[in-house]
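Researcher: Here's a chain I'd like modeled. Treat it as a single chain, no partners, no ligands.
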Amino acid sequence: MKPTIEFDSLTAIQRYQEDLLQGQLLYLQQHSPFYQKLFKDNQIEVGDIQSLHDLERIPFTSKDDLQRCNDAFLCVPLTKVVDYTTTSGTLGDPVTFGLTDGDLDRLAHNEMKSFQCAGVQPGDIIQLMTTMDRRFMAGLAYFLGVRKLGASIIRVGSGIPELQWDSIVKYNPKYLIVVPSFLLKLIEYAEKNGIDYRNSSVRAAICIGESLRTGTLEDAILTRRIKEKWDIELFSTYASTEMGAAFTECVAFQGGHVQPDLIITEIVGQDGNPVPDGQVGELVVTTLGVEALPLLRFKTGDMVRKHVSTCSCGRSTYRIGPVEGRKQHMIKYKGTTLYPPAMHDLLASFPELELHLIEIIDNEIGTDEINIRIATKDVSEDFLNTIKDHFRAKLRVAPRIIVERFEDLHKIVFNPLNRKPTTFIDKRGVGK
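Model: Modeled as a single isolated chain. Structure tokens:
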């Protein structure tokens, strides 16, 4: 791993990645039962894959492959696995990712680089508002990265505004690692309890799980709502267990920079071919330097854009925009194609909403219908019609709005068996 590779020329970065790729292919040929079979079945000689362009000769790896053949992806004996992480699988059962000591070092390097991208310095104090338990990689990754950088971390975990503010007041963190919508809850708690949050120690938040920008890299509605109340810097970061790497924004706030020593990315269309820069496509990743469970041309299912304009921070690397949707969550509604994140962001413009859940179902003629289940302080007909009108104006769809009791909806959204809030349920095809 080269610490400053992102500041090198594009030509140097490509050469560096191609060298790493050749080493990774040889490693897979020697140690991965799954890829050994894939190479044999497709008559691929790994020595013939010399350039990034040559990658297109190799078939994609899917989430279903991981689900069906989980153990065949493992490249090390179990005695070398020092940490077990799981991620939800497309076929229902979780997929296990083992990590070696080397993988944990790589993860720490990744998060250190991400924090540096967002301006974190040695000696800074960071408050972690996400879990480290339940075999969840994110919290562990953040902890390792902060430690490697030489900063300090307050491991508070998720939720509980009172406890979060108690730690902020006591330890004076400069940065928060947080789901951005939770910042609104922190603000609401502070206002109700006389906490002068605008003059707290917090100067920035590294935000996970929800998009801060639109597809064109403008501030999302959620971002604007936060900044209207609390003038702190909001850095977007996007990562996944499968790729063991993160794309984090710099101070230019123009998408998350790729880390070329850790990952190769492609963005492809429905036909599997690359889409032009700036257009939406599915993110495909090839991990570099992973020992236990490396992946080759893995289709993430995340729909993103690649931004290649020169960044004012001085890094040469392109950026990945926010996840605009999941491929399998694409909704076709009366000639309009949309993804749940656009609806989540639109709903963020209504502070009256306490909770919401987007539900997609089939109707009797086989097309998609959208239910928006809400808990709200305002149950008037005028308010519900305002939500519908906003959807028609902004997204050209008219969902069904269903008002529910806060307690009932809270049980679904914050199911204790899930590691993340459930804000989207796809019921298409259920019962068929």
